[in-house]
Structure formats: structure tokens, C-alpha cells
Amino acid sequence: MMATEYVLDADKIAHWRIDNHVPLKQLARAAGVNLSSLSHAIRDGMEVKMNLLLNLAEAMGEDPRDIVRKKVER
After folding, report:
1. Backbone φ and ψ of 22, nearest 5°
2. For residues 68 and 10, what is the distance between their CA atoms, to the nearest angstrom?
3. What's the predicted TM-score (pTM) here?
4. 3-46 pLDDT tens trace
């Protein structure tokens, strides 16, 4: 049995950024990650590393489970 993989939920993150008026650059800085790394993680649907997920969720004030979705195989 394979473990379920999770990726960042681009739609939820985009809506949060709009609602909170937070540019991606500012969110990346708050999460302590490189802007291009965060951008790729959101856009490309790659499995997200736990430390990135936890830092991003903390910067957003969200539960980590609320900013991911199950990975869909293409």
C-alpha cells in the first residue's frame, strides 16, 4: 500500500494571499524560504517537504492540513 502524497493547495494559498493582501515574496520571507522555491512548490504540485509545510502554515497562521491537498497522478 502506497502512502498518500500531499502537495500545496495553490487555490487555498492564493485565496489566503488575496484575503490578507500578502504578496508571495512577503509570504516566502515570513516562512523563511526562497521565493522561487515557494513559487515552484505551489505551482508545480511537487510533494512538499515537511519543514516547508510547517513554516508556511505558521507564517499563514493556518493548520498545515488546511493548505495541502492529495496529489493527483497525471
Report:
1. -115, 115
2. 8
3. 0.87
4. 778 899 999 999 999 999 999 999 999 999 999 999 999 998 87
**Cα distance between residue 1 and residue 6, in whole Å:** 16
Give, for 34, the enclosing helix (H) or strand (E): none
In the chain, DSSP finds a helix count (H) and a strand count (E) of: 4, 2
Q: Transcribe 3-26 into DSSP letters.
A: PPPEEE-HHHHHHHHHHHT--HHH
- How far is the C-alpha of 68 from the C-alpha of 74, rounded, in Å? 17
Task: Evaluate whether 41 touches 52 at the Cβ level (below 8 Å).
Answer: yes
